[in-house]
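Today's session is about reading a structure prediction critically. Students often jump straight to the picture, but the first step is always the sequence itself: look for stretches that repeat, for charged clusters, for runs of hydrophobic residues. Only then move on to the predicted structure, which in these notes is written as discrete structure tokens rather than atom positions. Here is the chain we will use throughout the hour.
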Amino acid sequence: MKTSSTSPFSSPRHSPLTVIVNPPKILSGLPGDQLQIAVVIQNLGDQSAIIDVFLEADTAILQWCRSTHQRLGLGSEQNGEVIFEFDLPSTALPGNFDYTIVVDAPNHYPNDTPMQSDHRLQVLSREQTAVGIDDPTFFLTPATNSQQPARLKPGEILPFEVQVENRSSQTDQFQLVSEDAEEDWLTIRYPSLDKNAPGRLQEDPCLNLNPGERGTIRLEVHPPMDTLAGLYSPALRLHSTNHPDLKRLDFIYIDIEPIETCSIELEAMLDRVSHRSGEYQIRLANRGNVFRQLSFSASSREEEEWLTYDFEPDQMRLPPGREAQVQLRVTPFRKRRRPWWRQRTFPFQVNLQDAQGYQLADQYLQASLIWQARPWWQLALGILLALSLVSGSGFLIWWFFFKPPAPMSIEEFRTNSLEYTEGDSVNLNWRILNPNQIQSLTLTTRVQETDPEAKPIQPKTFEFPESAPPGDLPDTCPEPERLCQQYDIGKLAAGRYEFELHPSVRSGSAAEPGKLTVSVAAKPDPQITQFAPTQVEYQSGANVGLNWVIENASQLAALTVTATDQNTNRTSQTQYSFSQGIPKALPSCQRKGETLNCSAVPISGLQAGAYTFELQATTVKGNRIESAPTPSVNIKPKPLSIVSFVVNGRTGGGNVKLTLNQSLKISWRG
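Below is the predicted structure for this chain, in token form.
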């Protein structure tokens, strides 16, 4: 029975988005109707924004709405409209359904959204029985409807008269009930049965009417003091004793006026601080009958701002009859300007704002923060600091003019990775501290474990003459005496290598060399992951097709396909060399990365019989890897057939007649 607040959709002050909902209060209709609600949004900000508009409700509302989530793109100073359409089913029962419209722009206005507004959809009731000529009727005075409800404050009494007419030919008894109204909302009074005592009323259980007689039932509506503001529509039902199945319905529409009383108090918990934040508490009590959506901010009452304000929370939704507290921490942010001699007072005010525009008794709350002066020992510390500055100046003079040069050292000597794969380029990086005394750098490589066929790596020396730039260093060494990046050693064979960078100086003691160890892993051998024939039976003279897949194909040197008959005799071998890439004899082979995929590779020249096939891979290092034999492949012989048959030069069928002693010449070809 309760509807949403009659306030339209409202947004916080200074919000970049303005939202208007039409109709702003209640959306009502009968079962089977099609309803619309329009949401107009204006972008008052200085940037374009993508705005999501969607509904939050129970399952019934979401099922009735054609589209519950819509998106709108608006440029600065532009407005747009989205429309939500509702299809009320013909079987919908009368009642009220709450839903919330949410406007959100998280990517462009995250601090000002989401914005919410509560609304209500009201399904009105149809009369369930037709009015016959003898059926009783009733009506209420004064009449109300959803567009012109009766306005009432909580605790007030609103009287109604219910006029009932008995149009039947029998005496009848009538009762007035409301099934969806609270018990303490309504008082129903029936007239006394004593006709000789006009004006005297007593509470009787029903209204007795003779045929053709009219009567009045008095109804008082008195919502309790704690009733929430909004539109209410209790249904009244008239029951007839003679016609128990006949139902007469009517609605009373009551608009409960909002009571906006809200008490606000600001109490200082800690307003004299030295190094902490000031602590304040805002006490709120909603004494009205509307939900309060409050936001909090603060500002200085002086021209210059010295404080930061932290509210917890900075927004609050306060239901009617509830109390809450908001914690405020006030902190001076210019710590270095804390007073030396006397304390300083900073007056400020707390600003409260109601998002729905309800009145606030105290919109601005004033308070002060006292910043105490520094303790005496800090002044003494300042004097000591001044003396330190004087002595520090002398030290700086010695540092810049008399200090001996700092010794050179290798601050950093590293490689991009400590583990490489054979064939990768190894790059070194080094950084030298205080390089002014450097004379040369020698890079040596010690082989701890390596391929016996790998070539030795000779030491490399870089000279740094005083009057000329160093040589033999690439462009990746932007500051040769101090910094070198990505110095390419080259491609190394598999093994472990220890690199040392030995610096040599013009004078003074030699610096410690830089050392690091690198592991180079050998490339993995090829692996035959798939090897199978395309089919298991062939006719004699046809090519046998083979499919195979080989991983790590870059290490492949050659392939050999061997055919073995059922007597384990190797009848054929086919070799393919990969020294120049994929051979032309394998046009169906494709290589993607390290995977070689070959399909339907033809093997010819095999006689009829059963064969198995093996694939042998030879690596670039000479290793051999063999696959498992394929399943048996059967090559069938060609069937025997007679191509031609000639008798005495005559072809074709039929009988041949011969005379006595005549010769017979027969020839055939199969």
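Discussion point for the tutorial: The radius of gyration is 50 Å.
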